[in-house]
Amino acid sequence: MENAFLEIVELEDGQFALKRIDSDDEALVTVNFSAEVIRILQDNQSIIAKAMIGAGVQAASMMSQQAADDTEELSSENQTIH
User: Is the pLDDT of residue 15 over 80?
Assistant: First the structure.
């Protein structure tokens, strides 16, 4: 994903969504808790949703960086310098 400003919002139906700030497009990710989990979390589901989405964004960023590093490494291995 290109550099984008993202926000986590609570939707009208109670789901949490990761969206681009400058767009009304569909959510990139949504998190939906069952009634049982909402009861267990005692209305703290927003904290858990933020942690879940944050962990996903961080993992995706790390994977993207690793892919870029691997591509750069392959490019440098294939160069012949005289």
Answer: yes
